[in-house]
């Protein structure tokens, strides 16, 4: 009986630590290109063009230099940020984007973009905020996550809130 009680206390303590870690402010990110989401979205580009696999896999990628070069291999504007893309390519350097959205490794939670975007039909803005309106890269995530936010969304969408749904 004591072992079961102690195990329960440890689980609760672990969840408290995870919630505190999830709410810790992240360091401000500097991106290699001052990417203008609004300009690209206004031209009709879908998130999946740059963030490949968002509909098919558990993860969504950050754009590679090759993705940017699909449109920007030749000059399209006088924007110096556009020129940086070709400079990175000329030097053979990858774009080292700083990821803003990530589940902390110690959360032991599984998240699938495919499950949420394709099967759940959840718009990107639900979790990523008004990214499509950003004219410069945000320095921090526009939406802060913790378990309460995820559970509330699961309840609203009427999907499972069982621990094993996300925690493996």
Describe the 3D structure.
Mean pLDDT is 86; it is low at 8-23. This protein starts with a helix and ends with a helix. The chain has helices at 2-22, 37-42, 47-50, 65-72, 80-91, 113-119, 124-128, 147-157, 163-166. α4 (65-72) crosses α5 (80-91). It is mostly helical.
Biggest sheet architecture: none
Average pLDDT score: 86
Radius of gyration: 19 Å
Q: Can you tell me the residue ranges where pLDDT is under 50 for at least 5 consecutive residues?
A: 8-23
Helix content: 40-55%
Distance between the termini: 25 Å
Secondary-structure-derived class: mainly alpha
| SSE succession | HHHHHHHHH
Gist?
The chain is mostly helical and 168 residues long. The protein is built from nine helices and no strands.
Topology:
Elements: H1 2-22, H2 37-42, H3 47-50, H4 65-72, H5 80-91, H6 113-119, H7 124-128, H8 147-157, H9 163-166
Helix pairs in contact: 4-5
Tag the structure with descriptive keywords:
168 residues; mainly alpha; 46% helix
